[in-house]
Amino acid sequence: MNEIVFIMGKSASGKDRIYRELSEDKALGLNKITMYTTRPLRSGEAEGREYHFVDDDTAKRLENENKIIEIRCYDTVFGVWKYFTADDGQIDLASGKRYIVIGTLEAYDKFCEYYGNEHIMPIYIEVDDGVRLIRAVKREMEQENPHYEELCRRFLADAKDFSEENIRKSGITRRFANNGEFDDCVDEIRQALKELVYE
Ligand SMILES: Nc1ncnc2c1ncn2[C@@H]1O[C@H](COP(=O)(O)OP(=O)(O)OP(=O)(O)O)[C@@H](O)[C@H]1O
């Protein structure tokens, strides 16, 4: 049973857009998971909507209780900010519900360790590097303050994080290409979900 649909891919591969499209499709009935962060709430954000905003002690307590499924720690100028997914009851494999998660390859491995890979359906989105870089630059140009250095850093970091060896080690065998029309890619994923998640 593939109760958890796990979307992943390099930066600007289109995963946010695909995640939104699939999670808004009522017919699929995929439930979103709210992650946690120790970074402060920004204006316009609301507790429980973008994230559950918690302090470091809460993160440590959940860690001690072995309730953290995957965690990423970033050394920022404001100190260490943690982003994590916790086993807080949002995912209940016995409930018959389906879930949709977006994350890194490392997070996918952690989900497999925690829940067992038979419960997770990996959706790996792939876009040719040249096309992906152009889309990333275009998206950045639309920002008020484009950060091209960060874009380049992520592009290079992704080449390592999503190396062919890492993809193979994670047991990812199927890739969903998003080089052409967005709807074609989403249709292919919908078809795969019908076969593998709603079998
Ligand atoms: N098939 C497509 N054709 C054209 N543009 C696309 C297509 N798919 C996605 N895009 C665009 O590419 C850009 C990157 O998509 P998106 O933000 O969803 O990527 P992402 O993988 O979530 O990136 P990141 O990890 O950097 O946040 C967006 O501007 C999106 O609208």
Number of helices: 7
- C-alpha-based Rg, rounded: 17 Å
The total number of structural domains is 2
Q: What is the share of helical residues?
A: 25-40%
Widest beta sheet: strand line-up: 2-7-1-8-9
> What is the architecture of the largest domain at the second tier of CATH?
3-Layer(aba) Sandwich
Q: Catalogue the ligands.
A: adenosine-5'-triphosphate
| Helix vs. strand class | alpha/beta
What's the helix-strand series?
Answer: EHEEEHEEEHEHHHEH
In the CATH hierarchy, the third-tier topology of the largest domain is known as Rossmann fold
Query: Tell me about the biggest sheet?
Result: 5 strands, parallel
Mean pLDDT: 95
CATH class of the largest domain: Alpha Beta
Portion of residues in beta strands equals: 15-25%
Give the full name of the CATH homologous superfamily of the largest domain.
P-loop containing nucleotide triphosphate hydrolases
Q: How many distinct beta strands?
A: 9
The general outline is: globular
Uncertain stretches: none
Distance between the termini: 8 Å
Domain Guanylate kinase-like: 2-194
InterPro entries: GK/Ca_channel_bsu, Guanylate_kin-like_dom, Guanylate_kinase_CS, P-loop_NTPase
Keywords: Kinase, Transferase
GO molecular function, one term: kinase activity
Topology:
Blueprint: E1 4-9, H1 15-23, E2 30-32, E3 36-37, E4 52-53, H2 56-64, E5 68-76, E6 79-86, E7 98-102, H3 105-115, E8 120-126, H4 129-141, H5 148-161, H6 164-169, E9 175-177, H7 182-196
Parallel strand pairs: 1-7, 1-8, 2-7, 3-4, 8-9
Antiparallel strand pairs: 3-6, 5-6
This protein binds adenosine-5'-triphosphate.
InterPro entries: GK/Ca_channel_bsu, Guanylate_kin-like_dom, Guanylate_kinase_CS, P-loop_NTPase
Organism: Lachnospira intestinalis
GO molecular function: kinase activity
